[in-house]
Write a structure and sequence with these properties.
Layout: E1 3-4, E2 28-31, E3 34-37, E4 40-42, E5 48-49, E6 54-56, E7 61-63, E8 66-67, E9 77-78, E10 83-85, E11 90-97, E12 106-112, E13 122-125, E14 128-130, E15 135-137, E16 140-142, E17 151-152, E18 157-159, E19 164-166, E20 169-170, E21 180-181, E22 186-188, E23 193-200, E24 203-209, E25 217-218, E26 223-225, E27 230-232, E28 235-236, E29 246-247, E30 252-254, E31 259-261, E32 264-265, E33 275-276, E34 289-291, E35 296-298, E36 301-302, E37 312-313, E38 318-320, E39 325-327, E40 330-331, E41 341-342, E42 352-353, E43 358-360, E44 363-364
Antiparallel strand pairs: 1-12, 2-3, 3-4, 5-6, 6-7, 7-8, 9-10, 10-11, 11-12, 13-14, 14-15, 15-16, 17-18, 18-19, 19-20, 21-22, 22-23, 23-24, 25-26, 26-27, 27-28, 29-30, 30-31, 31-32, 33-34, 34-35, 35-36, 37-38, 38-39, 39-40, 41-42, 42-43, 43-44
């Protein structure tokens, strides 16, 4: 944990007119011996640029437009664009925008990292850092098993020789020395394959897949399989046959025995005649239509009363056959399929019509 230094930054008088917050150029620049901040020249000859974020002059240290209150100027150094240190302290600095003026005003924060050791403190990039005692992320300390070998992998992952970490939490059973990211949803180490997915702000779920690593195959960002099993978002699809499993269109898949929508087995379907309508890709839908020789399906649900031989996909969640118009799985009462037309999205006060009526989300619109 770190303690926020509670103070208002003193005004940097020598930069009063030269440090506007909104500029095309950002941060400190030293170009051919001329120093700029946010595109404006600084004329103080004692001013030294440490990197794009940090600078100092003869009497003060700065993070962008904000000055430090307690830093030791003589020993102050930038560690990276967010971390800095002097002989006594380590700091984490960041820039943010206030909600009421989000597009207008940038603010800077300077936070002292309580307990950090300046002498051994180093940056690991992507907001990670460490000293001889512990690791840090965005100025907050967290514990790792072997701090000497700890490194950042990306914004969410890190590892040491013993363990891998997701959002600073150890991944149970992982081997850090061999851990690596495969892609945006899969990782591996010498023993295991992992699936991980985003579940909310800074929250991820990670699952160790009980798979045969030698035959493991990634099918897309959700599906994977080995010679026997199939996985969806890291969980086993019960009964699916890995050897014959393949992806179809629009979140459908199949094996030698069944059709699947996402991880759900579609009931009472003829695998041999099952097809997904190509028209799904042309229209705006919250779901997908498919059929076999006798039945029309919406995702994993049957469309009762639909004739598979004459069914066609319309736009905006509509479909029709020779006798009926359907909105999702329901028959649209009073609709004439011969004259039924779907409006382009967001045109008019109804999204479909036939020769006699207008319809909104499958319901007849009554004109007032």
């Amino acid at each position: 944990m770190f303690t926020v230094i509670k103070w208002f930054a003193k005004t940097i008088l020598m930069l009063a007119c030269a440090l506007p917050f909104v500029r095309c150029a950002s941060g400190y620049k030293d170009k051919d011996g001329v120093i700029y901040f946010n595109g404006e020249e600084i004329t103080d000859k004692s001013f030294v640029v440490l990197n794009e974020s940090f600078a100092r002059d003869s009497s003060a240290v700065y993070y962008k437009s904000k000055s430090f209150q307690y830093a030791d100027v003589a020993s102050f150094e930038a560690v990276d664009d967010h971390y800095a240190k002097d002989k006594n302290k380590v700091y984490y600095c960041d820039e943010y925008r206030e909600g009421q003026n989000y597009y207008m005003t940038k603010r800077q924060s300077i936070d002292e990292i309580e307990g950090a050791l300046p002498a051994s403190f180093v940056s690991l990039d992507m907001h990670y850092a460490k000293d001889n005692k512990q690791a840090y992320f965005e100025g907050y300390a967290f514990t790792v098993e072997d701090v000497a070998t700890f490194k950042s992998i990306n914004y969410h992952f890190g590892s040491d020789q013993k363990r891998a970490y997701l959002n600073r939490k150890p991944i149970a059973g992982s081997h850090g020395a061999s851990f690596e990211i495969i892609d945006d949803n899969f990782a591996k180490d010498e023993e295991h394959i992992y699936y991980y997915g985003y579940t909310g702000e800074d929250q991820h779920n990670i699952v160790m897949l009980p798979c045969d690593k030698a035959t493991f195959e990634i099918l897309d960002y959700r599906y994977s399989k080995d010679k026997e099993k199939v996985f969806f978002l890291g969980w086993i699809i019960k009964g699916a046959d890995g050897a014959t499993f393949e992806l179809l269109k629009e979140e459908y898949a199949k094996d030698k025995n069944a059709i699947y929508f996402q991880s759900k087995k579609v009931a009472d379907v003829d695998v041999a005649t099952f097809v997904v309508f190509d028209e799904n890709e042309e229209f705006g839908h919250d779901f997908a239509y498919a059929k076999d020789r006798t039945t029309v399906f919406m995702d994993d649900l049957k469309v009762p009363g639909a004739d598979a031989g004459s069914f066609k996909v319309l736009g905006e969640n509509y479909g029709s056959d020779r006798q009926h118009v359907f909105y999702k799985t329901e028959i649209v009462k009073g609709a004439n399929p011969a004259s039924f037309v779907v409006y382009p999205h967001d045109i008019g006060n109804a999204d479909a019509k036939d020769a006699s009526n207008k319809f909104h989300e499958g319901v007849k619109v009554i004109d007032e």
